[in-house]
Input
Amino acid sequence: MAHAMISIALSNLGRRYAALVEARRALELEPERPEAHVAAAYAHALHHDCRAAEKSFGEALAIDPQNHAALLGRCQIAKARNDTKMLERALDDYRSVNPDDP
Output
């Protein structure tokens, strides 16, 4: 869990390579933890690898279908891709879990 949180913090700082290293370490140690997959997704997004980020968010959601960060991340990927259909689906999924989130 610590490596996943470090990866997310590094992603927020824009430290692409370090974020990916920590995310990979988190996945090696606990591959069944959704936070590790979310951390990997954000690290991939920093590398402009939307396909890998989307896959990692999907893996997090396979483990925890109501994972807030993964649902929101899928919305961000769809927005970055400028894919309105994908964004509508992602927002619907997000709203079904978080209906009161503005």
Q: What stands out?
A: The chain is about 80% helix and 0% strand. The longest helix spans residues 16-29. The chain has a mean pLDDT of 94. The helical segments are 2-13, 16-29, 34-46, 50-63, 68-81, 84-97.
